[in-house]
Amino acid sequence: MQNVIFIGITDSEASYANYPLWIKNDDPCIKIIKLTPDNYDVVNHCSAIILSGGIDTHPKFYNNKRINYPNAPEAFNEQRDEYEIIIFQLSQKIGLPVLAICRGMQLVNVCMGGTLIQDLEENNKSNHRKQNNKDGIHNIKIEKDSYLFTICKTELATVNSAHHQGLDTIAPEFRVSAWSHDGVAEVIERKDRNNHPFFLGVQGHPERFAQIQPNDILTSNIRSQFINAAKNNFLCKS
């Protein structure tokens, strides 16, 4: 009988179904747990965590009082901010691999002491939002000395985008391992990976990009590394 691993994915305001579809694929060993404010304590039973995309993190979590910025949501979801911060902190305490996607990457950066660009276009960056209800598509440059490069073995890759915010001050523990052409942080990783579980933060949406580019190296290799880390974590604790 094969061992079953549980991967927790935080609930999202939209398109949640794409995350378990991408991560589970056809792997019978993977079971998905949707993490919500009512059950986030089941993180203790998970072998890895995905922090999903969604609406902007409330600015108060990065010590910014401005809430009426361009493209700000009509209402923030502070409950979600709070429970996902707890989930991330708990995951680090018990040593779980984490993949943080879009909002998830921004939240982790905030949680660890970083800040956000509240609106990219307002700050003279390109439009990274959806266009005609479709994700934007653009290239990124990957740093050759990064963990990300060891995963995908290429300096250039293509990602999708559906966000209007980005990382400003990078939290001290992290480094940027990939940039967009206009200087937006696209992927973050730990500066020091020794004695830490897997962590990547990606600004794009690999769970959606996989639907249009199923053989994309960056998307598929990030998934493979994350799944391997989850399975290794399960075996180490068994």
Keywords:
9-stranded mixed sheet, 11 strands, two-stranded antiparallel ribbon
Write a structural description.
This protein is α/β, with parallel strands linked by helices and 238 residues long. The protein has a single domain (5-237), classed as Class I glutamine amidotransferase (GATase) domain (Rossmann fold). It has 6 helices and 11 strands. A 9-stranded mixed β-sheet has the order 2-1-3-4-11-10-9-6-7, sandwiched between helices. Strands 5-8 form a two-stranded antiparallel sheet. A hairpin with an 8-residue loop joins strand 10 and strand 11 (199-202). Helix 1 crosses helix 5 (206-212). The radius of gyration is 17 Å and the shape is globular.
Provide a short characterization of the protein structure.
With 238 residues, the protein is of the alpha/beta class. Helix content is 28%, strand content 23%. Helix 1 (18-24) crosses helix 5 (206-212).
